[in-house]
Automatic annotation (TrEMBL):
Gene Ontology MF term list: DNA binding
Origin species: Nonomuraea harbinensis
The name this protein goes by in its record: LacI family DNA-binding transcriptional regulator
Keywords from the named record: DNA-binding, Transcription, Transcription regulation
Pfam families per the UniProt record, alphabetical: LacI (PF00356), Peripla_BP_3 (PF13377)
Length: 330
């Protein structure tokens, strides 16, 4: 930094202000310092900076099953929001979110000197693990339950399911069948709850849900079962991958979508607009989830851990060609 100051003809403090984006630096001075930084190839010593500021500018993320679209998109949103805020991210991916695995992951991240931790906790079994976080650790759970001293950022899964179900009812369908996600997932519970609530509020019959596991294969099996049932005109699948399986099974059984059966998914994965037909679905704003996670963590870092927040991100809804009015159903 002293070399940069000499090269630019300014003080050490001015270089520090430029590096920290302080507003009280004249534009021409800032430009001169930045040119000197480029010429000299200067890089800040993050370890030395952490000793002075008591912050590493590193955040830890503990996640489960990053191959699934939701968790993977959540992590990407968190990473982008962290970089915008001037932080880097260290990620630990676990096979299971049990207490011992989460504690080991937190210990590993603590050894790296992270300033705070985000735990992507979509399964109910992760609750005890969240409660085991070391006291005073700035932490946020994504899609977790509000338990103990951990803040939560989540998407309103139940409202997303209500949007999907109400859309189909408003098209004139007498009821809506549902393909669920796997047990123990909070998203499964929320979407099941919203679907059932929308049907009960409308005074419509509630069919027995069909089990699924987020995969197209599970949706395909459910689609074959639905094609064999009498009176099925509308289906809400708990994610887009299972909706894809439903569409394939119905097509093979000679059932036309949406002429005979309307199908709605959940997630709005990039491929859903290219399904045959393009899929009507619930959209989750993972970028907003990431921004909220970082904002909550930074507030904890400024005010001290111990304050709990619950931020709920509203879902969106995208209407495409996989749904139609029930009047078109013969």
């Amino acid at each position: 930094m002293a070399d940069v100051a000499r090269e630019a003809g300014v003080s050490h403090q001015t270089v520090s202000r430029v590096l920290n984006d302080h507003p009280n630096v004249r534009p021409d001075t800032r430009a001169r310092v930045e040119e000197a930084i480029t010429r000299l190839g200067y890089r800040r010593n993050l370890a030395a900076r952490a000793l002075v500021t008591k912050r590493s500018r590193m955040l830890g993320v503990v996640s489960f099953d990053t191959t699934l679209y939701g968790p993977a998109s959540t992590i990407y949103g968190i990473e982008q929001a962290a970089r915008t805020a001037g932080y880097f991210v260290s990620i630990v991916s676990l096979k299971t979110l049990d207490v011992d695995s989460v504690r080991d992951a937190i210990d590993y991240l603590s050894e790296q000197g992270v300033d705070g931790v985000v735990v992507v906790a979509p399964r109910r079994s992760a609750g005890p693990a969240l409660e085991s976080l070391p006291s005073g650790t700035p932490a946020v759970a994504v899609e977790g339950t509000l338990r103990g001293d951990v803040s939560v950022v989540c998407i309103d899964q139940a409202e997303g399911a209500r949007l999907a179900t109400r859309h189909l009812l408003e098209l004139g369908h007498r009821t809506v069948h549902h393909v669920t996600g796997p047990p123990d997932w909070l998203e499964t519970e929320g979407r099941l709850e919203g679907w059932r609530a929308a049907l009960e509020e409308a005074g419509r019959p509630v069919p027995e849900p069909l089990p699924g596991d987020w995969s197209p294969h599970a949706g395909y099996a459910a689609g074959r079962s639905l094609a064999a049932m009498d009176g099925v005109t509308a289906v809400f699948a708990a994610n887009d991958q299972m909706a894809l399986g439903v569409l394939r099974a119905l097509s093979e059984e000679g059932v036309k979508v949406p002429d005979q059966i309307s199908v709605v998914g959940f997630d709005d994965i990039p491929e859903s607009a290219f399904f045959s037909p393009p899929l009507t679905t619930v959209r989750q704003d993972f970028d907003q989830v990431g921004r909220h996670c970082i904002e909550v963590l930074l507030r904890q870092l400024d005010a001290g851990a111990g304050t709990c927040e619950r931020l709920v991100v509203p879902p969106g809804f995208v209407v495409r060609s996989s749904t139609a009015a029930a009047a078109r159903v013969p």
